[in-house]
Amino acid sequence: MSNIRPYLIYPKLVEQPTWGGTYIAEYKNWQHKGDLGIKKFGQSYELCGASLLAPDIFDSKSEEFTSDNQAMDALPLKDLIAQDQQKILGPNIYERYHGMPLLIKFTQALGNSFQLHRKPAADSCRWKPKAESWYYFEPGRITLGIKKGIEVSSYKACCKRIEKTMLALSENVRKGTIPLEQARVGAKEIIQKENPRQYVNVLDVPKDALIDLSGGGLHHSWEEDPTSTLGNILYEVQQDVTDDDTTIRSFDQGKLKEDGSIRAIHIDDYFRYLDVGDSRNDPEHAFMYPKGTMLLSTPYYSLDLLEIFGNQTVSLRTSFQHLFLKEGSLEVLTAGGSVTMSKGHSCFIPFAVQSYELRSANKAVVLKTYID
Asked: Could you tell me the pTM of the whole model?
């Protein structure tokens, strides 16, 4: 296993029949690969601690290159890291994390829950903080922050009433007292009556917008837009921590699963860790704006957008790097080998590479993630 070459990453495609779509497979030009074009995918994991690398495939257009659940000869990233953590991750990253600290997702989402992540400095024996940032590939709609001047106690009481109704509906479905569709109608009615969105900022988000939630404590959700069937198409960079340990929900859009069950809601904790300061809840607080090639820089990760015409040399200063090709075609060359990337695909570059060259015959646009 060489630590001075790039590796294509087998993406993990996550089916979400109720809120996913075909955008991700089409973006990767995989709509004709097997049955990928007819399934609804909500997310593609482009990098995480459980990622699988393609050691023997050097072009993402290869017929053998596919999603990670179909990969034949995969190299677990954790095995590459175990070979020499300092050379793969970078000495400082190894000392801080002792493993891959990032999770990068390509997402198509509709109607996600009202939620937040606690602030890093907040005390909790239950919830871990999770830095998270979004880069929008298409226009979308979100809730972001609490409206100025609202009574937080009224918002909490609204969430409690919805939860009480949802628990009753769920129990009745599971007992067989009412059919699932009747329960879903009931859920829709209570949400229309209570109108939880009256307490939060509802925003239309333009293409190429960048939202940083890495500070925690801020309400957020992805919303449905009746004028667009795509939902929210975004590139997520975050810490690799599970939702069960980090995501605190106050409202789950009235969703009932096919068996009548509902997702856990944590209203008391949501309001315990919610930052209600007026300036903090101004949506502009979370919108980031590029500074040259840098889209954002946080204590947990940085994200650059590079436009490649011809050749460009890139150095690794402090950590490994992850590349996602947003547009075009790109060749990544190192002293130990090269890979060719097509639109919508990713590669991992170990820290030991130190520097590499990017080549594109035409314009290529690449998202580069790393840790300073």
From this structure: 0.95
